């Protein structure tokens, strides 16, 4: 398939730092303008700036859509910021955040949720990742020597973290189980593969 530009979504007043989608008709973007925006499809090649989420006091640097659960049947939007906080939003009533998750001591730069929506993991410049369940910090993952730029929940419930210390760590129930070496610079992204393996991306051009 040959791709070509189909739409430009203009609305933020500073650089856009994160983007997630829910199906083909909804996008959420976060920006250094301290806001998140919900964009809804209005035509084959058109999206409208539907809602602006205002609540952070500094740059918004991470976003995740948490899948629906019994307690949150509409799912939840999570945003992380340089104000050190994570805000949770009801996508059907986002006028005010549902709650604030506090605990990090520096920029929250990465967010990921489990497929069943019960676990949220955050990564931060404070060199830690945190595992959140029902709005409470269940585990603080300490072991990296630099910022945690990437987080991933695997199907078996274990957590992967990638860091500016060039390492990837695997955690089970809050305990460090394995370190993966190979990158020679900051680990920026992690993704699960269908066969149970995972892939990583780094500033080392690999």
Task: Tell me the Rg in angstroms.
Answer: 17 Å
Number of helical regions: 0
The general outline is: globular
Extract low-pLDDT stretches.
none
Distance between the termini: 25 Å
Biggest sheet character: 4 strands, antiparallel
The class by helix and strand makeup works out as: mainly beta
List the secondary-structure elements in sequence, H or E.
EEEEEEEEEEEEEEEEEE
SS elements, strand count? 18
Helix fraction, binned, reads under 10%
Spatial strand sequence of the major β-sheet:
1-2-3-4
Q: Mean pLDDT, nearest integer?
A: 96
**Residues in β-strands, percent:** over 45%
Outline the structure in words.
The protein is mainly beta and 206 residues long. It contains no helices and 18 strands. The chain has strands at 16-22, 26-31, 35-43, 46-54, 60-66, 76-81, 86-89, 99-101, 108-113, 120-124, 128-133, 136-142, 148-153, 159-163, 168-172, 175-180, 187-192, 198-202. Strands 1-2-3-4 form a 4-stranded antiparallel sheet, with no helix packed on it. A 4-stranded antiparallel sheet has the order 5-6-7-8, with no helix packed on it. Strands 9-10-11-12 form a 4-stranded antiparallel sheet, with no helix packed on it. The chain is globular.
Structural topology:
Blueprint: E1 16-22, E2 26-31, E3 35-43, E4 46-54, E5 60-66, E6 76-81, E7 86-89, E8 99-101, E9 108-113, E10 120-124, E11 128-133, E12 136-142, E13 148-153, E14 159-163, E15 168-172, E16 175-180, E17 187-192, E18 198-202
